[in-house]
Structure formats: structure tokens, C-alpha cells
Amino acid sequence: MTAPIQARRPARAARGTGRPRWAGLLVRPALIVAGLLVLWLWTRGQRLDSIEARNVNGEVIGSQVLEHVELTLICTALTIAIAVPLGVAVSLSRSRVGRVVVLGLGNLGQAIPSVGLIVLLALVISIGVGTAVIALVAYAVLPVLRNTMVGIEGVDPVLTEAARGMGLSRLAVLFTVELPLAVPVILAGVRTALVLTVASAPLAALIDGGGLGEGLFTGLSLNRPVISVTFGVLVAALALFADWLGLLAEMFLRPKGM
Amino acid sequence: MPEPTGRPGETIELTDVTKRYPGQAEPAVEAVSMVIPAGEVVVLVGPSGCGKTTTMKMINRLIEPTSGTITIGGTDVLTLDPDQHRRDIGYVIQQIGLFPHKRIEDNIGLMPKVLGWSRSRIRARVAELLELVGLPADYARRYPRELSGGQQQRVGVARALAADPSVMLMDEPFGATDPITRDHLQNEFLRLQREVRKTIVFVTHDFDEALKMGDRIAVLRPRSVIAQYDTPEAILAAPADDYVASFIGAGGQLKKLALLRLRDVELAPAPRAEGLPRIAVEATARDALDLMLGEGSDVVLVTDDFGDDATVIGSLDLRMVMGAAAGEAGNP
Ligand SMILES: Nc1ncnc2c1ncn2[C@@H]1O[C@H](COP(=O)(O)OP(=O)(O)OP(=O)(O)O)[C@@H](O)[C@H]1O
Ligand SMILES: [Mg+2]
């Protein structure tokens, strides 16, 4: 199934000085805290058997959350490191072919169901964290790549011409004009990729890659809803939190004066 | 007015320059040849789409000519490194094009910074240029969107002047300003130009602006074909054809008078009579005529300066104005 992710529009939160915007920023953390609180109260009210108790406890949860976050950070960093330079290069080359090929590959990574991709790569390469990282990055590259290209191509040509006309080199124009102005759009892509990664990272557990997927799949395979619900809610909370961080980044890193 | 840092202009020469955009039947610029003498302001006027911007951009190589050569100071610009070449040319683009994410001071100071000027020197330069274009010093800290269109345009001019180029290309630089501000900017600009003597190519739609700003005017037809290339006085006195005449429009005689400063007119001795209207020697013959008509007097006194305590240095009567219009007091 091909479901290309639309170039996500940057958050507008920084524009205008409405207080409601700032208040809106607090809604998400409040929801997350409330959800986790409910989860905690609910599990406390359950009578846990030994298997459940072994999985739903602070130590296991803590280490899996840590693994999950680590995995996500590594994957997102790699995604940015690959997608941004690639997107810049393709935009600057103005090559139609390059554009089609790169976007096609990005679409492919996205279009293959992530479970399929991760299992396929495990078969081809091996199981383990490394393979999980490759699969997750392949899955998340597209939004950053696309937004980088859209962001750079969206810079008003009048501005690049003004910059060229003063005698800035091609590279200087990129770094002083094009990239700074594309930052909001690129960050919107990064935010999408970040959430995508957090939400798909549980699949890493299928091939021994660690993370919150371990608890989730344990609960599912042993038919222990308490375990799977707990870890499912944690993944959702983490994804919401990542999205919120992305929003903050968009607000604070957008160029001033815009 | 700040002290100009003077790099005088260089001669620009276009020889048979043609630009054909890909996929277009007609060239946008066809076989243009012209010499833009060092230190002069040459104004290109012509209808929209006639190729003024294209001609200008070929000089700084934002557009490469299809054929023909362009030299600056005798050097073929195609042999130069494009970036180095452009650094020596101030360019005020038609759409202003300030960088929205940079403060005014960083917009103006960008090229000096790239050229490695010290921070204090850049700051001084920015202050000097803001004063020159008539903007308050504290605008340096603003972002472009916090300025009006006309103010942004002035920053555009300041930015082009920042690295003290020897050649300026100005594409409708005062287009977005009201008549009063425009007049002020034109006067400031002319005053600066008298001191720095850069070579300036200036594009406008407004023939009156062309008359005022230009040492020479090139009236262009479509494809930048030159209809007439001469001094404002000569074009007014003898338009080459109906096309040029249509650009001059109505009131050609009055426009001629507007070009003539009283200090360039031979004045009659001042009569003893009291109560005659007075006019400063910096004014034009047209201003003098206007004053005569307004005051119902066929003689005015000419003073050495503005204001009531200025000294009378001579007088001017209606017949002398008519003589001036006929070209007798003509070009100094
Ligand atoms: N990049 C381009 N590609 C193709 N055609 C172009 C391009 N730029 C300009 N033209 C065409 O070349 C002609 C001259 O354009 P140019 O911008 O030089 O006109 P101009 O005299 O500056 O007009 P204006 O007064 O409206 O600014 C026009 O017919 C325009 O459509
Ligand atoms: Mg133009």
C-alpha cells in the first residue's frame, strides 16, 4: 500500500503572541501524566500473577523505556544525518531524475509494511539491534527527506537571487539563506519521523532489538492483557511526548523575524 | 551626511549583447550596444517586459548573455570569477529581497562580514548607511517584516552600498515609496553620487525620475532595442521619434525647465525694488516660473540660500525663463 506522507506543515505556534498557544503546549504533558496515572492506579488494583509481576514492575519498565528511547534517538539521528544532506543535494542539483529516484526509494521504505520490512531485513542480515535500526531508519527517512526538499525549494527565489547577486557563493547561499529559511519545514518532517520511530520501535523486539516491544509482545503471546496494555500505553505516552518535544523544537528553533 | 568612502566607478561597455531565454521565439534582449561612462548615472526606461532587468542582470552575470560581450573597466566580465565579480557590484533588486530571518543590521552587514570586516567597522558602516537612507539608527535591530515597503526598499539600497562597490545596478530602487519620500531619496542619492561618482545603471518606469536621476537616459523599445541614448536635455530638446516623444509625454518644455538649476543660469543684476518674491539658487527654472505665476510677478529675486536672511545674488525675469526653455541658457 502506498500512502505517501504529506509534507507536514510546520507548527505555527510561534507566530502571534496568543497566550492560548502557550496554554495549549501544556495540554499534552497533562494528558500524558493523567494517562500514566490512570495506568498506575489500574495496575495497582489488579491482582498480578507471577508472570505479570515479573513484567509489570518498575525495573523492567525502566530498562525497556530506556532501551526504547535509546533506539529512537539513534534512529532519528541517523535519519536526519541521511535525509537532510540527501534532500539538500537533490534540491540543489535540480535534477528531475535524482528527485524521482530518491523520493521513490523513500516511498518504498515507507510503503513496505514496517513489520514486513523488519522481518525481511532480519532474514537477509541477521537479528539484533543493528538490523532494527536499519529498518526503522528506512521507514522514517521519507518525511525528513521530503520536507527538506520541499523546504529548500520553497525558499523565495528572489532571496536566493539577492544573495547570489551580492556575491555569496552557492554554498554560502545555502547556509545563510536557504537552510535557515527551510528549518521550520525540515523540523516538521523530523517531528513526523520521530513519532513514527517511537511508534514503530516496538517492532524491534520481534528481532531481538529490545525496547518496549518486549513487554508488549510478551503480554500478547502469553495472553496477559495487563502486560500488553501497560506497555501499549507506555508506547503511546512516549509517542505523544516525542511529538510534544518536536513541537517545542519547532517553536524555539524556527528562525526569528518570520 | 556621512563621509563617503570613495571607490570611483568604472566604465561599462556592452557590445552586441543578446539574451535568448530557452524556449522563446524572440530574444528578450537583442544586440544591445552601449557605453556607460565611469562615474555616470545611466537610466534605462522602457515599457514593462522590454528587457531592462535582463540587461541589468547580464552585467552582474546573474544571467549569462547568449552572445555579445560586456566589459567593466576594460575587463571582459566573462573572464572573471562570478562571485568575486558580483562583490564589486551593488545590486538593488526590483523585489527588494531582504532576508526575513536577519535583522536589518545583518542584512546590510552581510557582505562586509563575508569580506572579513571587523565587527566595529561593520557596526559603524551600518549606522552610516542607515543615516544615509534616512532611517533611524534603532531600526538596525528590527526584522524586515517590521518595516514598511518603502523602508525596506531603503534598506535594500543601503545593503547594496555596504561593501562600497564601484558599480551599482538599481532596479526600480524607489518604486515602493510615496512621492515625498521618493523625492527625498532621489535628492540624497544625487548628493551622494556627486561625491562618490560610482557608475550606476538605474532602471525606472517613470520618465520624470529618469530625467532627474540620469546623466544619460536610454529609452528602450521591446527587446531592449535602444530608441535614443542621450542626456536628458538632448532627449527633451530633440526626441528621436514619436516613440521617445510619447515617453516624454505632455509638458516637455516644463520638464526642460525642471532640469535647469538657477545656479546654471546667467542672472540679471538685482533691481532695487522691494517686495519681490525670492527664490534660492538651488531651485530650478521651473520653480522660478511657478513662483512668478503664483505671485503674479514677472521678476523674482535669486538668493544664495534658502531662508529669509539669505543674500540676494541676482534676479530673473519671465523672458529669461523663456530663453532658458529655448535652450539659450542651456547646458552648462
Ligand atoms: N527567466 C526567464 N525565462 C524566460 N523568460 C524571461 C525570464 N525572465 C524574463 N523573461 C522575459 O524576458 C522579457 C524581458 O523581461 P525583463 O524582466 O527583463 O523585463 P523588464 O523590462 O525588467 O520589465 P519590468 O519593467 O516589468 O520589470 C519578458 O518578456 C519576460 O517575459
Ligand atoms: Mg524588471
Characterise the protein shown here.
The complex is a heterodimer of chains A (258) and B (332). With 258 residues, chain A is mainly alpha-helical. Chain A has a single domain, classed as MetI-like (MetI-like fold). Chain A has 10 helices and no strands. In chain A, 39% of the residues are buried. The N terminus of chain A is likely disordered. By secondary structure, chain B is of the alpha/beta class. Chain B folds into 2 domains: 244 residues, P-loop containing nucleotide triphosphate hydrolases (Rossmann fold, 3-Layer(aba) Sandwich); 70 residues, Roll (CBS-domain), CATH 3.10.580. Helices cover 35% and strands 20% of the residues of chain B. Chain B contains 13 helices and 13 strands. In chain B, the strands form 3 sheets. In chain B, strands 6-7-8-3-9-10 form a 6-stranded mixed β-sheet, sandwiched between helices. In chain B, α5 crosses α6. Chains A and B meet through α7 and α8 of A and α2 and α4 of B. Magnesium ion binds next to α1 of chain B.
What's the short version?
With 258 residues, chain A is mainly α. Chain A has helices spanning 19-45, 50-55, 58-93, 96-111, 114-124, 129-153, 157-165, 170-200, 213-221, 225-253.
Order of helices and strands of chain B: EEEHEEHEHHHHEHEHEEHHHEHEEH
Uncertain residue segments of chain A = 1-7, 12-18
Give the CA-CA distance, first to last residue of chain A: 38 Å
Biggest sheet character of chain A: none
CATH homolog superfamily of the largest domain in chain B: P-loop containing nucleotide triphosphate hydrolases
Secondary structure: number of strands of chain A: 0
Keywords for this structure?
heterodimer; A: mainly alpha; B: 332 residues; binds adenosine-5'-triphosphate; binds magnesium ion
